[in-house]
Structures are given as C-alpha cells and as structure tokens.
Amino acid sequence: NDAMTSRNKVRETLRLFQVICRKLLQEEESKLKGEGKTHKRVDCQAAKILKEKGKYVNTGKQIIGPVPGVEVGDEFQYFIELNIVGLHRPSQGGIDYVKQGDRIVATSIIASGGYEDDLDNSDVLSYMGQGGNVMQKGKQPEDQKLERGNLALANSRFVKNPVRVIRGETRSSDLSEGRGKTYVYDGLYLVEEFKQEPGPHGKLVYKFKLVRIPGQPELAWKVVKKSKVREGLCAHDISQGKEIIPICAINTIDSEKPPPFVYVPQMIYPDWCRPIPSKGCDCINGCSESGKCSCVMKNGGEIPYNHNGAIVEAKPLVYECGPTCKCPASCYNRVSQHGLKFQLEIFKTESRGWGVRSLNSIPSGSFICEYAGELLEDREAEERKGNDEYLFDIGNNCSDSSLWDDLSTLMPDAHSSFHEVVQDSGFTIDAARCGNIGRFINHSCSPNLYAQNVLYDHEDKRIPHIMLFAAENIPPLQELTYHYNYMIDQVRDENGGIKKKICYCGSSECTGRMY
Ligand code: SAM
Fold it and tell me: What global pTM score does this model have?
C-alpha cells in the first residue's frame, strides 16, 4: 500500500533527522562545557547529511495538493524539516510555487499569525504578500510587486488549486527554548480573493484571503482552545495531587468512570529488595566535563541528554545523576527523575479501554513519564496471571533497530552503544493495584514513545526505572503509545495454554495481535 509506505518513510526520515540533530547538539554542548549557548545550526548540518545520502522524501517537482506521507496536524521543530519531506521547499521565503503550463501557481505558504482570533472564523487566513522590504529593518520600504510568490498566489486564485498552509507558532515549552517556533501543517486552502492596500509602512502590499477546504481534520490546538470545560470531563486529577501537574480523565464514549487504583507517582520496592544506593559524583560545577564526572563516565563519557532535556538516543541503560551526587538539581544529567512536564490526560478509547494523550505539543526526545508500580520477581508475576493487564517485564524493552542501522551508516564516527543487549533481569513491574499514569498507556504496532531503562537512585542494573520518551514530535491529543514487545504465542494462561489478544491499535502497520 503506497499511502502506508509514504507515511512510514516520512516518519522514519524525520526521526532520523531529529536523532542526528540531537547528536550534533550533544557534541556542540559538550565542547562548550556547559557555558553559553550553541550557535551552530545543527539542523542545517543534519539536513546536509540526509541530503548527501539521498534520504530526502518527495523530491522532484513540487507537488500541488497533499504531500504523500504528511498528514494534517503534523508538527515540525525546524523549518528545514518542511523541506526534507517536500512540504515546503524554499529555505527562507514564505511562498513556494511551481510552473504549471505557462504560469506559476502557489503550492505552499508559511503563515505566522494572520488568522482570525475568532475561532469560528479561523478557517479564514489573511495573508500578506512578500517583498517590498516590509519585514526588513534598515531598508527603505517600497510597494510590493505582483511577481514570484505574490504572482503565484494571485494565479492560484484563478486556477483554484489547493495551497498547503503551514502555521509557524511561537512556543514556550522547555524543549523549543531558543528555537522560538514550531511548524504545524494546517491543511489545504483555496485563495479566494486578493487586493492591494496600504501596508504597515504606508507602501502598498498584497493581501490574500485564503479559506480552508472543508472536510479536513480539525487541528488539535483548536479543539483544546474551543472548550473551556472539556466535554466528557469525569475526573479533575486522577493523581489526587500526587503529580506536579494534575491529570484529568475524559470520557466521551460512555458513562464509565476511571477505574479505582492507588495512584503512586514512584516505584514501590518490596521489603526483601533494598536497591544499593549509588555512589554519586563529586561535581560541584556541573557534570558536563567528560573524564571527571563518574556518572557521565558510566554513560560512555557523554551526557545522554541535550541541555533542553531531550534524550539524545535510545540506549540499553542511561545513568542520571542522583540524590547522592554533589551536583545541583538543575544538572543536565537529571531529566526523568523530575517528573511530568506535559499536561497529560487519560481518555476512554473506542476499543482499547483508557488511553493517554497530551494537551501540549511534545517535541521528539521529551520525557513523558515513568512506568511506576510494584516491583515483583518474575515468579510472583507468574502467579498474577489472571490479572496480567498491567505487568511490565523489565529487560524486555528494545527499540527501533532500523533507526540505529540508518544512524550508524549516516554518522559512522558517532559511537553508539545501542546494540549492547540488556538481558532479561527476572523482574516485573505490576501497576494493577498501585501505579501511575504510565499504566494507562496502550500498545501500538506503530508507536510514538519508547521505554528507556534509567538508573539514578540506586545501582542495581536488574531493576532500572522504566522511563517513557517521545520517539517523534507528537501533536496535542494524539494518543501516546509504546510497543509492548510481546512475543506472539509466548504468553500463557494459568494452565499453560497459549493466550491470544487482538490488537486494536488501528495503525497501518498493525500485525493484528498484541500476543
Ligand atoms: N487500556 C488500559 C486501561 O484501560 O487501563 C490501559 C493499558 S494497560 C497497561 C494494558 C491493557 O490495555 C491490555 O491488556 C489491553 O487490555 C489494553 N490494550 C492496550 N493496548 C491495546 C491494543 N493496542 N489493542 C487492544 N487492547 C489494548
């Protein structure tokens, strides 16, 4: 199926781009030794690597209308990502166009602002043309001309071809700090009219009125913004104040309330198990200097996180600094121990019980939450077979190896420990009776999160914390999922019979069974 392959291609390419960016940023940040901000454009470097290896998608002539593999609502952290997937080609310039017959027509525009504030009317976009030095400081403004992008948009008014609109939004989340903007693909619009009018500098500018073609998915931010009281709200905070950010429950499907369980934000260790506290590092002036920090050394000489808190790449085990380290809480090597960063909620799904989603945009690499619960030995977990819905088998998490293969060919110099194996540790986390938000995250055959082993408050490698991280940019309200990694025909019931469970993840790559 073509649509499925293009979607996968786009997602894989963007993931690869994001990992390369984070690795380049990591190199830059370690050179700066924690002082100052990097000014190197890691996005351009990463794009160059992809381009040289022929990894761009939808190359060739600019496409009019939908771009294969890109969906309405998709989010991008860097402008250049739009180019990589063929959504918008110019590396600057707000209007992309193509020659059609003997004239040029617009294919896509970048809109920053210009939308009606009135949400009922937000399908209408008022877009100012380009040129005339209106945006440039220190240059004499002049009348905008009906040429290039402006001419293309004017022609599109008569040709009535669909124009892709990408919204550039300023965002204030941690991970986008300094980057300023995030880009959201808003869908297809038609140019309805245009006129010339005096612009902000007194010179003439072109104003285009674009209207969104009906029948396209509504953008999540609009859904969130529209309703003050969320429809289907049935619990204000399932954590009962135990998390830094309240977690509400939404049910628009039926009248079921969230199930009863004891909310614990952290792991519960049984009495017989006293994890050995870790020794901790002696860094007082930050842990960035490799060769000195014992925690950084355990991570192979690098901090596994960027300074904005994004995890660089999946690893068998990540060592964060912990309670016995001398570094401050703000140390870059402490991320997942700080708890929730996004406004998460549980919601009733059609076919998978409750699930989890976020009201905020989540940048690739962000920490989401821990999978917390009671620690059990595998044989105890065996005894809970009748009630195995909330078990997480430690040591059974492995992530996308094709991404790693790509990465190692594209960046052969960057050492990566991905393929070291984590052996099955003999321990399981049970979140049936006691658990946190992690217990509500469903399985998907095409997930947007992955589980990462992390140690910070003890040294026992058999029982790392299971921390979930975003594997890609995730728009608001998209369900958060990870791969449960069950082996088909290997899950058994109390009597040793093979158990089967149908998967309802709904993704195009669904294998049909969870186990
Ligand atoms: N949906 C659960 C709930 O309502 O509490 C939260 C996830 S819980 C850890 C795991 C259970 O959710 C599974 O045993 C199964 O019943 C359901 N589930 C998760 N992912 C699923 C999927 N892709 N298809 C069908 N059921 C799923």
Answer: 0.94
